[in-house]
Amino acid sequence: MNIEEYREYCISKNGVTEECPFGPETLVFKVMGKMFALSGIEDFESINLKCDPKLALLLREKYNAVQPGYHMNKAHWNTIIMDGSISDLLLKKWIDHSYNLVADSLTRKQREELGFPKYILEWDLEKVES
C-alpha cells in the first residue's frame, strides 16, 4: 500500500477529515474530530493506528512490523512499519478496526449522524488471523 492508496481508503469512510495538526509533515485522519490514523507524508515509512489493547499486544507478538505506537499511548496505538511485510488486505482490516474503535467512542448523536451502530469487537483475540 502506498500513501495515495492509504489516503484514499481512510478518506472514503463516513465522517472522515484529513488534517495536518502536528505540522505539514504528518497526515492525520479523524472521524468526527477524533484521530484514528496518522502517518508521515514525505517518507510514509509507518502508520499509527488505534487498536484494542489486547489485540495490540497479540499483533506485536505476531508481526515484526507492528510496534508500540510511536509518540502515542502504547496501550492503545500501534505503529505499523510500511516495509511490505503486511498485506494491503490486513492493513485495511486494521484501519477499519481503528476507525470502528474511534467511531464507537462517539456520542450516540454523532454515531447516528454517521449511520454507525454500536461497534462490536470482531476480532477473535485467541486467533489473530493473517
Key words describing this protein structure:
single chain, 130 residues, alpha+beta, Aspartate Aminotransferase, domain 1, six-stranded antiparallel sheet, 4 helices, 6 strands, 33% helix, globular
- The CATH class is identified as Alpha Beta
Number of helices: 4
> How widely separated are the two ends?
16 Å
Assembly form of the protein:
single chain
Fill in the CATH topology: Aspartate Aminotransferase, domain 1
Number of E strands: 6
Count of domains: 1
Query: What is the CA-based Rg, rounded?
Result: 14 Å
Named at the architecture level, the CATH assignment is: Alpha-Beta Complex
Q: Flag low-confidence runs.
A: none
Instruction: Give the proportion of residues in helices.
Output: 25-40%
Q: Name the beta content range.
A: 15-25%
Q: In which order are the strands of the major sheet placed?
A: 1-2-3-4-6-5
SSE string, helix = H, strand = E?
HEEEEHEEHH
Description:
The protein has about 130 residues and is of the alpha+beta class. It has one domain (about 5-115): Aspartate Aminotransferase, domain 1 (Alpha-Beta Complex). It is about 35% helix and about 25% strand. It contains 4 helices and 6 strands; from the N terminus they run αββββαββαα. It has helices at about 5-10, 55-60, 90-105, 110-115, and strands at about 15-20, 25-30, 35-40, 45-50, 65-70, 75-80. A 6-stranded antiparallel beta sheet has the order 1-2-3-4-6-5. A hairpin with a 6-residue loop joins strand 1 (about 15-20) and strand 2. The longest helix has 17 residues, at about 90-105. The model has no long low-confidence stretch (mean pLDDT about 90).
